[in-house]
Each structure stands twice: as C-alpha cells, then as structure tokens.
Amino acid sequence: RLRDNVAYAASELNKNGFDVNPQSAIIPLRVPEWMNIRKATNKIYKMGIFMNSIEFPAVPVSQQRFRISLMATHTKSDIDKMVEAVSEIWTDPEVKYENSNEELIAI
C-alpha cells in the first residue's frame, strides 16, 4: 500500500505541474526562491496538513524544500487534500517575500 500511495502522490503532483520522481516514501518538493517557506508552512498547517520544511539556514534559500512523508495509512483522500493544498500555496501571492530586498539572517 505504501508504494501505491507514493505512486499515486507522484502522479497527482506531476499532473498539477510539479516535477517529482520519488525514490522513497519521502518526496522532496523544492520551493521557488520567491516563496517565503515559513508563510507557506503556516498556511499549509492551517489547511490541516503538517508537512516538514527544510529551510534556511539548514540549506541555502535556493534549496529550501518541503518533505512530503507518506505512510501506508494515508488514504487517497488524504493525498488529494495534500496535492490540492500544495497547488493552492504555489499560486498564493500571500506566501511571497514582502519585497525583493528582504534578507534572511542566521543568528
């Protein structure tokens, strides 16, 4: 069932314009550099989905990503909800950085 879930999630994400080719049940989803990953993470959480974010300073801003962690217990409905949420976030102007000069500082 886990392999089926991974295949289904990858298929649905690719149908929605994402380029994923998972090798495991953890699907990395790189975010565009214009996206404020913290705002995106918060909005996804408010949609009822917890998704790990890998963000600056752990990685460069250009390599920030979400980690979609699938389990055998996820249903197709769960996966559909995740794909819908991610697709919505990727077109949401509210998750953009406020201005192009906004800098991240690691302290």
Q: Can you describe what's shown?
A:
With 107 residues, the protein is of the alpha+beta class. Helices cover 36% and strands 12% of the residues. Helix 1 runs parallel beside helix 3. The model has no long low-confidence stretch (mean pLDDT 90).
Total strands: the figure is 3
The strands making up the biggest β-sheet line up spatially as 1-3-2
Task: Round the mean pLDDT to the nearest integer and report it.
Answer: 90
Uncertain runs are none
Determine Rg (CA atoms, Å).
Answer: 14 Å
Derived from helix and strand composition plus strand pairing, the structural class reads alpha+beta
Q: How much helicity do the residues have?
A: 25-40%
Give the count of helical stretches: 3
- What is the terminal separation in angstroms? 43 Å
Work out the strand percent.
5-15%
For the largest beta-sheet, the strand count, sense and barrel status come to:
3 strands, antiparallel
Mass-distribution shape: globular
Query: Order of SSEs, N→C?
Result: HEHEEH
Topology record:
Layout: H1 2-15, E1 26-30, H2 37-46, E2 52-54, E3 65-69, H3 76-89
Antiparallel strand pairs: 1-3, 2-3
Highlighted features:
107 residues; alpha+beta; three-stranded antiparallel beta sheet; globular
